[in-house]
Known about the structure:
Chain A is an alpha+beta fold. Chain A has helices spanning 27-39, 72-82, 121-124, 136-146, 194-206, 214-221; strands at 2-10, 45-47, 56-66, 87-95, 107-116, 128-130, 148-151, 166-177, 180-187, 236-242.
Amino acid sequence: MSRYLLKLSYDGTAYHGWQIQPNGITVQQVICDSLKKMLGDDIPVTGCSRTDAGVHAREFCCHIDTKLDLPKNAFLKGLNSVLPDDIKVTDCKAVSDDFHARYSCKGKRYSYCFYFGKPDPFAERYALRLEKKPDLTLMNKFCKTIIGKHDFYAFSSSKRTVTDTVRTVTECDIIEKGDKIYLKIAADGFLYNMVRIIAGTALAVGEGRLPCDCAIKMFESKDRALGGETLPAKALFLEEVFY
Amino acid sequence: MSRYLLKLSYDGTAYHGWQIQPNGITVQQVICDSLKKMLGDDIPVTGCSRTDAGVHAREFCCHIDTKLDLPKNAFLKGLNSVLPDDIKVTDCKAVSDDFHARYSCKGKRYSYCFYFGKPDPFAERYALRLEKKPDLTLMNKFCKTIIGKHDFYAFSSSKRTVTDTVRTVTECDIIEKGDKIYLKIAADGFLYNMVRIIAGTALAVGEGRLPCDCAIKMFESKDRALGGETLPAKALFLEEVFY
C-alpha cells in the first residue's frame, strides 16, 4: 500500500461540508465516488478537517491509501476529468505511511471576505456585503488581541466536539483590496465556527458596536454573548494547510 | 404610467437565460416575481435582448411601466432584498415613454473569458480552461478582421430567428490579465450564438487549427463549417448595453 497526499480546491456552495453524512452531498462523497469511477476501487479518503456546509477551500488536504501506483500528471488529469467543475484536485504526492492528513496537520490559514458598495451577484457568492465600510483601524486593533495562545471557548459554537479549547493564533490581519476586505487568520487549530465568530466580532468592532478589547474579556469570561454574530459560511475560505 | 429603466447584474449559471419560458426558471421570471412580491402588482418587464441559458450579465437593461412612483434608493434596496444572491438590480431611472429597452438599444459589449494553468473551481464557473496558452498575436489578427460591417451569417447558429444577418462590430480585442484571456467585442447587434462562435474561431486561430484570415472566407461563403466550435455559455458575459 502507498499513501498519497491530495490537494483539493473547491467551491463549497453546493455541498454540505467535507464529511460524508446521510442528509446531503458532501465533498468527501464526491471525491470517493470519483476515485471509484476512475480507479474502480473503494478508496477511503481522510481529510485534514471537517468544513461546514457552504465553506470554500482554495486548498484542502486529504490522504488516500492505494495499492496502485499513481503517476502524478495522468492521475490529476484523469481525476479532474471525472470531478465536477466546483471541485478540482491540484496536487498529488507520495507520502510516508505515518503521514496523516488530520493528525500531521500543524495549522491552517483561513480568510473571511467582506465587500462594500453596490450589491454584486458575482461578489455575493463569496463575500458578505456591508452597507458601509467599517473602521479598519479598529478591526486591526481587535485582530492584534486575538494573536497568541488563548482559550477560544467564547469564540466557538455550543456544538463544539472538543474539551480543550486553547488554540494558538499566529496571524490575524485585516487586508483591504479594492472594494473587498479580508480577515486573514492562521492558527495551530480551529474550533467549531471559530473563524465565523471572530469575523463577526471583528465586524462589530469595526462598526462601533463592540469595544476593541472585547476579546480579552471573552477569553477570561468564556462568555459567547460578549462577541459578535456568527457570520454566514459563504464568505469563508480555507486558504492553506500547514504540515 | 411612468417608464423606468432598470439595470441588472446576474450570475446566469442557475437560469435558462433571460426570457420567460415554460421549461425552466429564467431571470425575467425572477424579476417579475420579485416586483410582484415588492409592489403587489403584475408589472410587465421588457429586456434589452434574450440571453442564452448559463450566460452572465455584468449589465443587463430592461424597462418597466408602473403607476407607482419609485424613489430610487428605497426601490433598489427593497428589490434587492427580495432578489436572490445571483441577481441584483444596480440602477433605476425614469425614462421617457418612447424609450424601449430593446428597440432603443444602439449596441452591446460582451466578453468571453479563458484561463490557462491548473484547474481552478473558482475560475471554472466563469471561464473556459485551456491546457496551453494560445498565440495571442494570431488571435488579435483574427479579431481585427471581425471589426467592421459584415454579413455574420456564418457566425450564427442555425436556430437564428432573423433574416438580416449583417452587423457592425465596433470593437474586437484580446486582453490578457494574469492567467486569464478576455475576448472583448462590441457591435450594434448580435446574432444567435455569435459571440460564442467568434470566440471559438478566435481560439482555433490561436491554437493554430484555423488560419488568421478565416473570417474573410466565412463572410463570403456564409459557411459555418469554416469556423471554430460554439464555446460553452458559462464564460460569456454581457458587459454593457448602449443607448
